Amino acid sequence: MALIITDECINCDVCEPECPNDAISAGEEIYVIDPNLCTECVGHYDEPQCQQVCPVDCIPLDPNRPEDHDQLMQKYNRITAA
């Protein structure tokens, strides 16, 4: 699954530089995650780095975008092949 940033986000700026796929960017009010680029850090790290650094724990899995490990790895391969 792609991750999402909830409205509990405090715009602390720590998640954006941690994303190896550049999936996180500043939105109108809070940071947002591009689900087409989010691989939950599969292919880069064992755990999503944004979740590790978030001080308010506002980056859960997006229940509307179910993806298994193989699908996330395929997305990683597609993103990094460019």
Task: Please give a structural write-up.
- The chain has helices spanning 49-53, 69-80, and strands at residues 24-26, 31-33.
- With 82 residues, it is an alpha+beta fold.
- The protein has a single domain (16-81), classed as 2-Layer Sandwich (Alpha-Beta Plaits), CATH 3.30.70.
- 24% of the residues are buried.
- The radius of gyration is 12 Å and the shape is globular.
- A two-stranded antiparallel ribbon has the order 1-2.
- Strand 1 and strand 2 (31-33) form a beta hairpin.
State the share of residues found in helices, binned by percent: 10-25%
Biggest sheet features: 2 strands, antiparallel
Proportion of beta-strand residues: 5-15%
What is the domain tally?
Answer: 1
The end-to-end span amounts to: 22 Å
* Number of E-state strands: 2
How many H/I helices?
2
Q: What is the level 1 CATH name?
A: Alpha Beta
| String of helices and strands | EEHH
CATH names the topology as Alpha-Beta Plaits
Q: What is the multimeric organization of the chains shown? A: single chain
The main sheet orders its strands as: 1-2
Keywords: 4Fe-4S, Electron transport, Iron, Iron-sulfur, Metal-binding, Repeat, Transport
Pfam family, one: Fer4_7
Domain 4Fe-4S ferredoxin-type: 1-29, 31-64
Protein name: YfhL family 4Fe-4S dicluster ferredoxin
